[in-house]
Amino acid sequence: MSTPHTGGCLCGKVRYEAPSAMKTAGKCHCTQCQRATGTSNFTAAVFALDDFKVTGETKTYTYTSDAGNPVTHHFCPNCGSKLYITNPIAFPGLALVFAGTLDDSTDLEPQFVVYDKRRPAWDGDNPNIPHFPEMPPG
To answer: 16: which strand partners?
Structure first.
């Protein structure tokens, strides 16, 4: 993907732009991500939070991850689209963007999979990238 990266919610009331390059991309199969997305995983495009600009009102929901870290979902209060996650302990200074909210995600290629032990058998992942049974240490 070329920079800048842009995206937004389903109704268009919230938009974002990340002028810097994507740091990485990955997939998480933890139970919380499965429930939050309504599918088997959360596919994230990762950007520097300092460069991540959001226009429009968002609401948040914070819960505690399996690892004991606070995870905050940022979403559109009008249509409910989840836009990005912040986790200041596990991913300090990063915005984990829901890949489906990007205007163009055609070149996004996950580089790793976490919580693979919770991946449903019907969801195949690229076997050529690292798979971690849980969240890898530090």
So the answer is: 7, 54
Q: Closest Cα partner for 58 from 104, 11, 118?
A: 11
51: tokens are: 């460069």
What is the signed CA dihedral for 127, 49, 83, 63, rounded to 10 degrees? 90
pLDDT at position 1 is 44
- Cα 29 to its chain centre, rounded Å, is 12
To 5 degrees, how large is the angle CA 78–CA 37–CA 22? 90
The one-letter amino acid code at 52 reads F
Is residue 135 within 8 Å of residue 115, measured between CB atoms? yes
Tell me which residue of 42, 51, 53 sits closest to 115, measured CA to CA.
Answer: 42
Please name the residue ranges forming H helices in 9-57. Answer: 31-37
In this prediction, the residues of the chain whose per-residue pLDDT falls under 50 are: 1
How many residues can be counted in the chain?
138
- Tokens standing for 108? 């996004």
CA separation for the pair 135, 133 (Å, rounded) = 7
The pTM for the full model equals 0.89
